[in-house]
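Encode chain A's predicted structure.
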Amino acid sequence: MNDVSVLERANRFLGSLRHCQVLGMRVHAADRAGVTLWLPFSRAIVGNPETGTIHGGAITTLMDSTCCIATVSVLPEFEICPTLDLRIDYMRPAEPDKDVFGFAECYRVTPHIVFSRGYAYQDDPGQPIAHAVGTFMRRGGAPVGAEGKA
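Encoded structure for chain A:
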């Protein structure tokens, strides 16, 4: 699979997730090495109005989605892979008024489970906001009749 196919799959997958659309997430980059999603800053994702810090739930949603969508970079066919387990270690608060990016890669694929890991950051990937590790259940390809809709 080429990088264009990975990017197309990532956009298709993200487009099917309504909560990601509401948050304004977009695919920033996608290739065989992994996927980066972009979460634009908005007042709607602020968790503490006094400091303007981004809510941890928005970061969790970003990382769950990024880790899951990273499956498109390694699986031969498009599959919906529900989250089985997600662990997020928060390293520091996300700064107010700044966009957040999430990067993830898949590091192991079995017949039933896909394992991924990644991190959220703002300006510098070397200064992560959070690290994430996720496992996702393989259910096979898109359901019959769902071509182009999943």
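The two ends are 19 Å apart (CA to CA).
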